[in-house]
Each structure stands twice: as C-alpha cells, then as structure tokens.
C-alpha cells in the first residue's frame, strides 16, 4: 500500500508492507495443500497424477506477503513427504518446485526424471525429437 506522507511534503511517498498473519493453518485439500489465514486462503500447492506412481507438481502459489518465505518450502515438503509415504515419484513442473529439486539433493529419491507427458527439459534425462 502506498500513501502520501502526512507532514504535508507531497514529494515523500511512504511504502507500507501488508502485515503477515501469524495464525495460519495448512490443510490437505484434494491433490495438494492450502494455507488459510484469518482473511482466507493465502497459498496453495497442487499436483496432478501423471500415472499411478507419478505426481506432477503443477502449481505453487503464495500471496505477496508470503511469496519466497519458508512457508512455500513447507508446502513443497508436505507434498514430498506424502509422495514418500505412498511410494510415489514427482515431476516438479512448477518453477519453484523445479528450482528446489535442482538445488536440493534431499529430493533426489522422489524426483522422476523421465520423458513422461508432463516432463520438461529440466526433469528429463534426455529429450528425443519425433
């Protein structure tokens, strides 16, 4: 939010950061998780089924005050833990998920590097042309 300085000096603009809610709940919803605050949903992660043993993380969204925070990583870790518990692999299609999978070896056990329909050049071992 932007507002004029109350001192009468119109040349000064004051930037106000939206407050981050401290009471947040993460809950399982369908194929993913959502984060709710007092004002409603503030973030989500979702995945699709590529096949019986593989999920595609296709969306991670956080409202502005939470974007780039540890909360985003917590959502990713919840999906990864669920995949491990169920013996599934993951294709990280969402940009944040792909970045985290590439930077953190702790995800190697669930990372499906294949040429499945939802894979991209970063999650494939090789790309074949038809």
TrEMBL record:
Residues 25-112 form the N-acetyltransferase domain. Pfam families: Acetyltransf_CG. InterPro entries: Acyl_CoA_acyltransferase, GNAT_YJDJ. Signal peptide: none annotated. Gene3D superfamilies: 3.40.630.30. This is N-acetyltransferase domain-containing protein. It comes from Paenibacillus nasutitermitis.
